[in-house]
Fold this sequence. Notes:
The complex is a heterodimer of chains A (152) and B (209). Chain A is mainly beta and 152 residues long. Chain A is built from one helix and ten strands; from the N terminus they run αββββββββββ. With 209 residues, chain B is of the alpha+beta class. Chain B folds into two domains: 1-34; 36-208, Glutaredoxin (3-Layer(aba) Sandwich), CATH 3.40.30. Chain B is 38% helix and 20% strand. Chain B is built from six helices and nine strands; from the N terminus they run αββαβαβαβαββββα. Chain B has helices at residues 2-28, 62-65, 82-97, 118-125, 139-149, 190-202; strands spanning 52-54, 59-60, 70-75, 105-110, 132-136, 153-157, 163-168, 171-174, 180-184. In chain B, a hairpin with a 5-residue loop joins strand 8 and strand 9. The N and C termini of chain B lie far apart (44 Å). The structure holds copper (II) ion.
Amino acid sequence: MGYPIRTLLMALIIGLPATVYAGSEAVTVENAWARAAIGTSRPGAAYMDISNTGDEAVTLTGIETDIAMMPMIHRSATDAKGVSSMSMAGDIVIAPGETVMLEPGGYHAMLMKLRQPMEEGESFPLILLFSDGGIVVVEVPILGIAARGPEG
Amino acid sequence: MRRRSILRLGAAGLTALGVTLFVGWWQVDGPGAPERPRSALPLPLSEMAFDLTDHEGKPVGPETLIGRPSMVFFGFTYCPDVCPTTLSDISGWLEAMGADAGGLEVVFVTVDPERDTVEAMAEYVGYFHPAIRGWTGPEAQVRQAADGFRATFEKVATEGGGYTMDHTASVFLFDEAGRFVSTIDYHEARETAVPKIRRAIDRKTEATG
Ligand SMILES: [Cu+2]
């Protein structure tokens, strides 16, 4: 795969490592956390910041995890009348250098039909699937039901 | 000379009237008007009527809240994202206010009474600030309560045969006389939410309006 001279020069100037990752290889994930759920009949939710450090757009197409039979990315939205609703997010394109935040009230990893309870203090692996066939595995710590962010 | 000053006085009076009219327009129809149309504002609690049960099994209704300032919001315990966030935000506001929030009634009304039984509500609210009460009841009574607050909710089917609820996520504030004071939007910052709560607490019965 060829890179434009300008990009290589930029990489030299700002001191990037010689190996330049592209596509889902260039994805990094930070601040992952999930909210504990009561029992297995209520859905769980997980959040994280997904960054594309490469120079090509990447497309997040879905998620997988052993703890839920129906994991998918949802988006919550609140309209002008203050009514909140949730819908499937579809593919999420992350431009080069951009970060997509999964956070309360917006995008979230919706974990439906839990196979096991999500207990505070435990963690589970969540797999992000990308359109180039790449995957990123994220270990997600489970915080309390009343947690507001990755710090609790 | 005298006549002229009368004229001038008249002109000043007219200007004052003009300012009054402008202020009136500004507050009712103009940019100073509340974002929601007037008809969408919650009724005073004294004009609402509904019978629900709190998470300890006690009968409750709008009259339960009159006499103390109150904060009411709608949600459901099978809500993975928006509702726990609202309950956490409210818990944080109450913690920040400490003893100042001591006299406040805080109520979470479920819009999903089919799954949110008294027991389910008791378990759920137990994870949040101890001041938060959970109310449930027959669907028709929940509907009547929501109508009084001008809140809406709707069952929506999800992938895989389940359902979720679309619902008003705002938090409603009332003074101790049961009059509507203001709304806190979903996920509003503590810096603006806490002063709104203080305003509801501070608005005493003798105040007009
Ligand atoms: Cu969801």
